[in-house]
């Protein structure tokens, strides 16, 4: 069986475990964090990709994910290819100490894909940024299905 590898621009169908499907687009490959996905704000009740995937916004900020395992295991399927246009690498927030304790933290950094800027307490303008981590595909499926972004939304 030929090996299937995703390419930048591929649209992925992601089963959500309840009969619905989410969609994401592979938009960038980072040398350290690997695959950056744009998770589309589209949930479908059938496996046929809906036409709105071509114009959909984002369900949540872009995320890094190990993409080869879900494709190799046939959990996620490449269903289309749409060239990535006008891509601008997003900012990410991260902390020096990772924990799941809600509340204020004072060790925040902002990462632009190359360098870190220490900001201490997280300014309001950065609270909606994605959290810098490489997520397992099961976590991404759960976030799409539930819209739950905890614990990251609780940390400021």
In short:
The chain is mainly β and 156 residues long.
Q: Could you characterize what this model shows?
A:
Helices cover 10% and strands 33% of the residues. It has helices at 68-72, 137-146; strands at residues 10-15, 21-30, 34-44, 63-65, 77-81, 92-95, 108-111, 116-120, 130-131, 134-135. The mean pLDDT is 89. The chain is mostly beta strands. The termini are far apart. The protein has a six-stranded mixed β-sheet. It has a four-stranded mixed β-sheet with strand order 8-7-6-9, with no helix packed on it. The chain is globular and about 45 Å long. The longest helix is centred in the last third of the chain and has 10 residues, at 137-146. The chain has a domain at 10-86 and 131-154. The protein has two helices and ten strands, in the order ββββαββββββα.
Keywords summarizing the entry:
four-stranded mixed β-sheet; 2 helices; 156 residues; 33% strand
Give the number of DSSP strands. Answer: 10
Strand count, sense and closure of the main sheet?
6 strands, mixed
Uncertain runs with pLDDT below 50, 5 residues or more?
none
Number of helices: 2
Strand order of the largest sheet: 5-1-2-3-4-10
- Beta percentage is 25-35%
What's the rounded overall pLDDT mean? 89
What string gives the helices and strands in order? Answer: EEEEHEEEEEEH
Tell me the distance between the termini: 47 Å
Over all CA atoms, what is the radius of gyration? Answer: 16 Å
Task: Tell me the structural class.
Answer: mainly beta
Question: What best-fitting shape do the alpha-carbon axes yield?
Answer: globular
Helix content range of the residues, please? under 10%
């Amino acid at each position: 069986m030929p090996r299937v590898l995703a390419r930048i621009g591929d649209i992925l169908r992601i089963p959500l475990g309840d009969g619905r499907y989410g969609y994401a687009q592979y938009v960038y490959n980072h040398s350290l964090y690997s695959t950056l996905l744009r998770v589309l704000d589209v949930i479908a009740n059938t496996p046929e990709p809906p036409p709105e995937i071509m114009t959909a916004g984002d369900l949540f900020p872009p995320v890094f994910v190990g993409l080869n395992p879900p494709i190799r295991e046939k959990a996620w399927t490449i269903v289309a290819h749409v060239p990535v246009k006008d891509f601008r690498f997003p900012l990410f927030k991260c902390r020096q100490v990772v924990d799941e304790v809600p509340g204020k933290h004072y060790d925040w950094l902002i990462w632009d894909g190359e360098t870190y800027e220490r900001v201490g307490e997280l300014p309001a303008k950065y609270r909606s940024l994605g959290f810098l981590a490489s997520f397992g595909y099961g976590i991404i499926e759960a976030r799409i299905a539930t819209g739950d972004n905890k614990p990251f939304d609780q940390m400021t």
